[in-house]
Amino acid sequence: MTNELTREAALKGLTMIAANSQHQSENAPLIPISAPDNFLAPFFDLLKKQQRSLHLNTLESLEALTRRYPSQLSAKAQLIQNEISTMISDQDL
Which residues constitute the domain of residue 74? Predict the structure, then answer.
């Protein structure tokens, strides 16, 4: 996530892994991520950068991870909400 050249691809790949793991068909790939909360601090750092596409990809990845790993991330829900809410203004609504 720290390499500027590869982080967009890494975010998209992580999103695809989490999103594809939600499918229940037996042919869907399942790649377990043992500690999805390890991604939170880097995601919050990326959301503070001034790149719209980076914000969107980070939020999509965060959403996919929270949908895929609700039990592991439920304890961090308040932290996620607090971080994201500071980034939303009245103009965004």
Answer: 7-87
